Backbone:
């Protein structure tokens, strides 16, 4: 069986869903093909016996564009704000220390010594320049602040956020703003201050005010400045993709894994340009194809159709993650779980990367008297994650957490899940690779790629890339019709 669609999107993670949603708002219908039986990809919530377990984002940021989606989907009443001031901890020598997020906190912390503190607090008075070649995050932090800051402040944070290895992550690829601040101002602090000033609302009476307020994105920033930046939904993060999928009703096909895509001869932007084969033997043709799958899937799909593009996508590394969610009776813990959770520096030699205290973050995550926590483990370089059985591996992580949090007895509920290619890595050379991918895509007007391996791994980044791709496709189709 075969038929033609104007636009086909492969993948119903947040990137594919946001792209389809935006196209719909622009008046362009599309078909979304999803391999699984549900939408959301990495964003997924397990609701089990009164516990609400997040297998992906636990308490993500909600930047203005995501807020725009929340509003348009009428999800504001479902939103629950996270506490940005909630305490976060770092484990050092089996003790938990609060993460110092302010100069006063830095002075008082026992996570790093006096020399490291002085280097951080006096950075504003010095002047440095980034090297011409891209540095790794580890090289950058060691050059600016020393090895102890890398090991006990930076590594636990980047491991938690990116599942990344600071020795591989590229500054230009993962933190371009920091490189720019150092290059332009000679100091990160001075660069940050300048960047912050340039974002401030224009004061009344300023002659440029009228022009500035005509800029809608700036206005939306001002409005959303007052909104909570961290949060989730009462029924979990899956609410967002579920609601998007509901809005796209009829435009998503589940269990529709794409096995290959091939360009059709003489395809132009209006005519059928791609032939798409699905696992069940179905064939669809489309004028515009948008890939919203992980880079390693896009690479396989494009291997014959666009080998140069495929080889760039293949070079993007992914980090593995093993996650375990545990439920305990509150009486089993000596730690009060007051805060967000804790992070573990690689130097501590543990498998645990971070543990989130879900029942402290939001109400309704566990029944009365119980606590729920989720640990992420499996350092990028550690093969144990791939080879060990779930039960064996979770025992190791459970023992590490029991020591850190004073837990006695067995967990009352446990859910383990593993993803050997969980998140793309913004390693040295990634920014250049993405620029090359964009160059190659410019030569293929019927193909777009969206996803968390292009401009950032956050939900906000995915939505931004997806909206932009939808707008480009809309312009192309409109241009072809006019
Ligand atoms: C543990 C964890 C914690 C995170 N924490 C945060 C956080 O705190 N804040 C934040 O902003 N972000 C966080 N993220 C990142 C964010 O969730 C992801 O980057 C984002 O959800 C990726 O969305 P995506 O649509 O690009 O990709 P995916 O979610 O991977 O979606 C890709 C989709 O394509 C489908 N697919 C694959 N192959 C095929 C095929 N052949 N045919 C059809 N369909 C196919 C898949 O089934 C999937 O549905 C976290 C991620 C993880 C894993």
Residues:
């Amino acid at each position: 069986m075969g038929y033609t669609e104007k636009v086909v999107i492969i993948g119903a993670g947040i990137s594919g869903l946001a792209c389809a949603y935006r196209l719909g708002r622009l008046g362009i219908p599309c078909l979304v093909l999803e391999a699984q039986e549900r939408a959301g990809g990495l964003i997924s919530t397990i609701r089990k016996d009164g516990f609400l377990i997040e297998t992906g984002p636990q308490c993500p940021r909600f930047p203005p564009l995501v807020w725009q989606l929340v509003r348009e989907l009428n999800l504001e009443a479902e939103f629950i704000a996270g506490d940005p001031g909630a305490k976060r901890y770092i484990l050092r020598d089996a003790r938990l220390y609060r993460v110092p997020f302010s100069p006063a906190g830095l002075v008082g912390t026992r996570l790093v010594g006096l020399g490291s503190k002085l280097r951080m607090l006096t950075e504003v008075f010095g002047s440095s320049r980034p090297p011409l070649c891209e540095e790794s995050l580890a090289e950058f932090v060691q050059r600016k602040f020393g090895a102890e800051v890398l090991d006990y402040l930076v590594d636990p944070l980047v491991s938690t956020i990116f599942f990344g290895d600071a020795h591989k992550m590229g500054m230009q690829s993962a933190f371009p703003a920091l490189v720019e601040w150092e290059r332009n101002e000679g100091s990160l602090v001075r660069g940050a201050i300048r960047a912050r000033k340039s974002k401030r609302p224009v004061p009344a009476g300023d002659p440029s005010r009228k022009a500035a307020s005509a800029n809608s994105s700036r206005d939306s920033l001002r409005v959303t400045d007052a909104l909570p930046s961290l949060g989730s939904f009462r029924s979990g993060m899956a609410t967002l993709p579920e609601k998007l999928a509901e809005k796209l009703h009829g435009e998503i096909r589940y269990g529709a894994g794409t096995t290959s895509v091939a360009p059709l001869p003489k395809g132009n932007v209006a005519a059928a340009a791609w032939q798409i084969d699905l696992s069940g033997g179905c064939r669809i043709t489309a004028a515009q194809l948008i890939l919203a799958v992980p880079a390693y899937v896009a690479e396989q799909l494009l291997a014959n159709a666009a080998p140069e593009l495929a080889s760039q996508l293949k070079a993007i590394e992914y980090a593995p993650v093993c996650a375990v969610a545990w439920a305990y009776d509150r009486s089993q813990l000596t730690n009060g779980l007051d805060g967000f959770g804790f992070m573990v520096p690689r130097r501590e030699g543990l498998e645990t990367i971070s543990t989130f205290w879900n029942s402290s973050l939001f109400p309704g995550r566990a029944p009365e008297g119980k606590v729920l926590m989720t640990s992420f483990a499996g350092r990028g370089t550690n093969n144990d994650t791939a080879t060990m059985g779930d039960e064996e591996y979770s025992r190791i992580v459970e023992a590490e957490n029991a020591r850190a949090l004073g837990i006695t007895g067995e967990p009352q509920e446990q859910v383990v899940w593993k993803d050997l290619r969980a998140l793309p890595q913004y390693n040295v050379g990634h920014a250049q690779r993405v620029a090359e991918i964009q160059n190659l895509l410019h030569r293929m007007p019927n193909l777009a790629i969206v996803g968390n391996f292009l401009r950032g791994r956050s939900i906000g980044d995915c939505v931004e890339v997806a909206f932009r791709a939808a707008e480009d496709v809309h312009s192309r189709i409109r241009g072809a019709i006019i």
Q: What stands out?
A: Confidence is low (pLDDT under 50) at residues 202-225.
